[in-house]
Amino acid sequence: MEALIGLVPFFLWISLIGWSGAYAYHDAKKRGKPPLLVCALVMLLFCPLSLLVWIALRPAIVRPPFNLDDYRVR
Questions:
Q1: What's the CA gap between 68 and 24, in Å, rounded?
Q2: What is the DSSP letter of 17?
Q3: Are 21 and 39 in contact (CB under 8 A)?
Q4: No. of H helices and E strands in the chain?
């Protein structure tokens, strides 16, 4: 039982790494940057600190030049 309790911080750390990678992936995709590269860098380089660096240095959201919901655009 004590061995299982000792593994709790490990699983919390792994889940934090996974969550930060997923957040960085979706955020990079939304901002027009290569999502796999950003995700890999956030997950592999000092996980919580690298996510904060990405949030601080990320570019603005890329907006399309037209409304994608407007079907009249040709």
A1: 24
A2: H
A3: yes
A4: 3, 0
Tell me the C-alpha distance between 35 and 26, whole Å: 7
List, for residues 20-56, the tens digit of each pLDDT value.
Answer: 889 889 999 988 888 998 888 888 887 778 888 888 8
Taking the C-alpha atoms of residue 23 and residue 60, their distance in angstroms, rounded to an integer, is: 16
The position carrying tokens 């934090």 is 16
pLDDT on residue 72: 66
CA dihedral 46, 53, 36, 25 (to 10 degrees): 110
Distance CA 54, CA 37 (A): 12
Three-class DSSP category at 63: coil
